[in-house]
Amino acid sequence: MKDWVREAERLRADFPILSQRHPSGAPLVYLDNAATAQKPQVVIETLARFLKERNSNIHRGVHWLSQEATALYEAARETVAEFIGAESAEEIVFVRGATEGINLIAQGLRRAYFGPGDEILLTQAEHHANIVPWQLVEEELSIKLRPIPLREDGSFDWVEFHAALSPHTRLIAITAMSNVLGTEMPIAEIAHVARQRGIPVLVDACQAVVHRPISVKEWGVDFLVFSGHKLYGPTGIGVVYLRRPWGEKLPPYQGGGDMIRRVSWEKTLFAPPPAKFEAGTPAIAEAIAFAEAIRYLHQRVGWDFIQAYEQYLSDYAEQRLGNIPTLKLYGTARPRGSLWSFTLEEVHPHDAGTFLDQAGIAVRVGHHCAQPLMDAMGVPATIRASFAFYNLPSEIDHLAHSLERVVEFFSPVG
Ligand code: PMP
Fold this sequence. Notes:
Layout: H1 2-12, E1 29-30, H2 41-54, H3 64-83, E2 92-95, H4 98-112, E3 119-123, H5 132-141, E4 144-148, H6 158-164, E5 169-175, H7 187-196, E6 201-204, H8 208-211, H9 216-219, E7 223-227, E8 238-242, H10 246-249, E9 260-263, E10 268-270, H11 284-301, H12 303-322, E11 327-330, E12 339-344, H13 349-358, E13 361-362, E14 364-366, H14 371-377, E15 382-386, H15 393-410
Parallel strand pairs: 1-13, 3-4, 3-5, 5-6, 6-7
Antiparallel strand pairs: 2-8, 7-8, 9-10, 11-12, 12-15, 14-15
Helix pairs in contact: 2-11, 3-11, 4-5, 12-15
This protein binds 4'-deoxy-4'-aminopyridoxal-5'-phosphate (PMP).
């Protein structure tokens, strides 16, 4: 254990933002990693170095800088393809983030796949990013969303799943890990059932991709999305995986430069995927810095450490927070990522969040863009503490002590 904590301390030094103090003078305790993760120095440097030394637009230039920028951007695509076990870099589309990714797929399926009466099966734990884009399609095509409830402990409910599956099910769109509960969903098993019925599967991997290695090939899924900023990369860059031949089948999401083979007033021919889905100038520097974040994770941190240490942090937090009498933890099922949502009796999550902030602790309070899940849980909001491999058990102690003070502060006098 001591060795793990020493390793976390060593890695922590790679993240300049973490050495800051809160304006109150307290050391900064960053426990909002599920919203966005901090960036290591190498990612910051890669971003700055590209802008200082190689900045240029890609693909169409014959000059040195443009060719260098193109090579770096396309190498970043290769890095992402390898990272998620895709068969080829052509299956990887760069977008702004998971939200744009799901919209891209939803609008493509709307135009080339769905018909009236079709159903999309999802869980009650989806992020709004995996609900609202489908509702936009629902409005136009009279398709139907079929959200399935989770079990009491937050785990996937196979009985509900099989009850909801029908000949009308045309897509399963599901999170691999809830951003509220942290529970992992059995994606490989779901995809196995789906394959037997010829139903494509879309995975929202925003949270899962941070905590565990992922292989789209092993999972056998058709679509997968995630955002770079939760994975220690910059904002403004995200990934869509389109398993072949979906890239050929789906029409483009947006039109413009760089996504065409030939434009004329009579007819425009599109470029093959992935270019077909990347109209206009993409986030070049961000894609390149994101690839650096992936290399950093692999080469400097390693999945073995991430998985073992984050599990330890999660278990430690469960024990420390679980000892606070008026605190309720949500979603205790395993396997799970390293985050906990909880409420305190008689204390509004926003009051608790503000109190914790004064102690230098950054947590997220609110509905976490998962209001249907909040409705199912019967609460308007929770407090969420989410951990990364640079967090320390002493930070969890600080959180637990501060929460005890919150409880004391808000307890009715007399
Ligand atoms: N899905 C999940 C599970 C998430 O946690 C998030 C981010 N909170 C998103 C989708 C949306 O990601 P982004 O805002 O980066 O597009």
